[in-house]
Amino acid sequence: PALSHALVNAVAVLIIACPCAMGLATPTSIMVGTGRGAELGILFRQGDALQALRDAGIIALDKTGTLTKGRPELTDLVVAPGLDEAEVLRLVAAVESRSEHPVAQAIVTAAGTRGLVLPEPSRFSAEPGVGVSATVEGRQVMVGSDRMMLRQKLDPAPFAAQARALGNDGKTPLYAAIDGRLAAMIAVSDPLKETTPAAIAALKRLGRRVVMVTGDNRLTAQAIATRLGIDDVRAEVLPADKAGIVAALQAGGEKVAFVGDGINDAPALAKADIGIAIGTGTDIAIESADVVLMSGDLMGVPRAVALSQATIANIRQNLIWAFGYNVVLIPVAAGALYPAFGISLSPMVAGAAMPLSSVSVLANALRLRRFAPPVEACS
Q: Which of these is catalytic: 55, 62, 76, 265?
């Protein structure tokens, strides 16, 4: 009965060839992987972020608020001879009271701790990454980096020894000028997050190249990088230049992930192949990112990298099973073994085998629910 035999085999082939397992292979792994990420405090805003993060060979990290707590404290105030320390701090804090930068808030807090009453500044202006200036009680006050002082033809050399020592301690030196005269050097320290050293070590174990991007002077940045074991440091970077740093890293041919939390990090987060925002940061940074760490814990970065690796590996396993199932069973259903061995695949058996393939893919994807970042054991 050739016709009936051919019809039975044709039905078996149609059943086996049903591409359910191949259709389920990728989305189920992505859904389970992103769900597990949410349980770990990692929000993947798009499914393709898993692939992009897995392929990112460079992890560039902003310093303030990402590696550090983002709550700097005034640690040192060195005034020029003949000037009163309290008066200098009062004038400097008055200017900084109009700024929203964390360093400015640290200076204002220090003045408040000493009980100083701050006058209202006028003609306030700010240049991101450089400094601020204003008129306070008729006196022109400028506070900023050494670059700002050099622009005003004020040489910070008298404070060079103190600045070098403070920089080696990981403190950020700033300078203040009053009425065109270099008046003081101010040092602030922003403590590292407790999990930062472990997170950097975990990223390096995962084979990622870690780059620190900061506006701090090179000496301070290098001291912090040495403490954390970071080899590549991009220091004295203006906020507007962070996206350019990302582009320069991408020019080397590797995909780049950028981790940041502030308003000035948004262009770099958007420019990077994968942007990772700290959930405790600004709304604009979160909106610009592909991945959001719901807490400020930097260990979320290596966790996200490890999860992306596990998810993509799971997708590949599913696809191998789905394709392998069809490659092996379609010839059998077509009768390839019948002439030699008399073996034919019944449509009922094919009907049982087809959903079994889909169930196998689903079961494999669900294994991601038990995912535990391997970096945890090493941190």
A: 62
